[in-house]
Amino acid sequence: MIAEKNLSSLHVGVNGPLYDIKKIKNGILHFGVGNFFRAHEAFYVDEILKDDPEWGIVGVGLTGSERSRKKAETFTAQDCLYSLTSTAPSGEHSTRIIGCLRDYLLAPADPEAVLKHLADPAIRIVSMTITEGGYNMDEKTGEFDLEDESVKADLQNPEKPSTVFGYVVEGLRRRREAGLPAFTVMSCDNLRHNGNVARKAFLGYARARDADLARWIEENATFPNSMVDRITPTVTPDIHDRLNKESGLDDDLPVMAEDFHQWVMEDRFADGRPPLEKAGVQFVEDVTPYEQVKIRMLNASHIMLCFPGILVGYEYVAEAVKDSDLRGNVEKFLNEDVIPTLKAPEGLSLEDYRDSVLHRFSNAAMGDQTLRIAGDGSSKIQVFWTDTVRKALEGKRDIARIAFGMAAYLEMLRGVNEKGDHYTPNEPTFRDPQWKLAKSDDFTTALGLPAFDAWRDLDTTALDQKVVEIRKIIREKGVKAALPAR
Asked: Nearest-CA neighbor of 209 among 143, 162, 159?
């Protein structure tokens, strides 16, 4: 295993930390230590520790599953070190050891240890990657869902929480009682206005617990919006073995990512921040134009490619984007449906960004699975497609590619591709009623799924009819026959 004691004997080509790990102090606590966090936020923080060692990270896992326990044990055994391999579409790659994670806690095993860190004045930022659907927002009302069973349990016993909302708010309560400043709550999840969403979620929980505490949090904590971007695939056993073979490491927690990375953030921090601009973070007054470009171009085209790609039988994104028919559909979606209705930030060419997106998708070394990209499609559609769909409906623009994407999503939910191979769609927010709609052979019924709620106030008659028409073609003749004319 990787350990501090063997950092001095790394193989040629593997870079170790450029700072003394023993001198790093904790300044950030992070919930959700998944691959994206390890390749993105941790990567950026690792870059600046040589200049400012006050920003080491305490990682926290929230679930007590066997997999979570094993992960915690492995982090501890490896001194919280792991390798990050960055790979370009050309295949050129580099590997480095990330050392900014200085502790890892499994919250169910020791809740009080997590709360003590949250109340520690050294912790000035609490960040999180808890997935797009992890903020417990009611999809119909847009408000924090107080009927969630875990949330109700935390509200009944708030000093012994189990949810991220309970931990953060109890940590802030302890800081207020101790006369300490509030920390920054920094969402790094891939959703529009992620800071605003986090603010609404945590304040929603806090108001239900204690109105005075909620007012203090509202006045003292900050929730900066940010736009994050880096493709970070699942590390399968085969990828795990390949990474270790190439690096010469014995790493039980290797992570890989594309060589591209971007982080644009509003400079609103409650109690100081690391000098992340030295690592390439772009601090701006308003992140909206940047996240709009990323969400409506990269994220939207990612699922526009993968929903039909799964149906055709492609396991990997790089395979799907090499299919000239599927790639052509995505290109036309960007050229005809997105770019004409999207305003770019000053100095950014949307055409260049389009080309970069498609180039990044071609990175076969990522082994990025189409099913991973399609996972939680209901939430992703609402975030990534809504503005484009609404502008098309309101402007009476061509709806052919949007209808195709919706139809491909609905057919993908059936769990069988054109070859007759079965797979398991991942929709974590679905319950029995949603799956009943998704599995119905009535093509109209599935249009009632929450994925399409964000434009129900508009006249969707023509769009709905087109979706049904395309689903029938996909079912009878296949995906390629249902593609809109190029």
From this structure: 159
In angstroms, rounded to a whole number, what is the distance separating the alpha carbons of residues 81 and 3?
7
- pTM of the model as a whole: 0.84
DSSP class per residue in 340-405: GG-PPPTT--HHHHHHHHHHHHT-GGG--BHHHHHTTHHHHHHHHTHHHHHHHHHTT---HHHHHH
Supply angle C-alpha 136, 119, 112, rounded to 5. Answer: 75
Lookup: tokens for 145: 């869902």
Phi, psi of 365 (to 5 degrees): -65, -20
Pairing mode of beta strands 26-31, 56-61: parallel
Residue type, 201: A
The CA distance from 186 to 225, in Å, is 8
Helical axes 400-412 vs 386-394, angle rounded to 10°: 140
Strand 262-266 and strand 282-284: the pairing is parallel
Report the SS3 class of residue 421. Answer: coil
Helix (H, G, I), strand (E, B) or coil at 102: strand
174-187 tens-digit pLDDT: 999 999 999 999 99
For the sheet containing 82-87, what is the strand order? 14-15, 93-98, 82-87, 255-258
Query: How far lies 238's CA from each of 20, 22, 235, 360, 370, in Å?
Result: 33, 33, 8, 22, 17
Strand bridging mode 226-229 / 101-106: unpaired
Q: Strand pairing of 226-229 and 262-266?
A: antiparallel
pLDDT digits (tens, 9 = 90+) for 264-281: 999 999 999 999 999 999
Dihedral angle sign, alpha carbons of residues 43, 44, 45, 51: positive
The number of beta carbons lying within 10 Å of the beta carbon of residue 47 is: 20
Nearest CA to 311 among 76, 125, 474? 474
Q: What is the per-residue pLDDT across 84-132, written as a single tens digit (0 to 9) for each?
A: 999 999 999 999 999 999 999 999 999 999 999 999 999 999 999 998 8
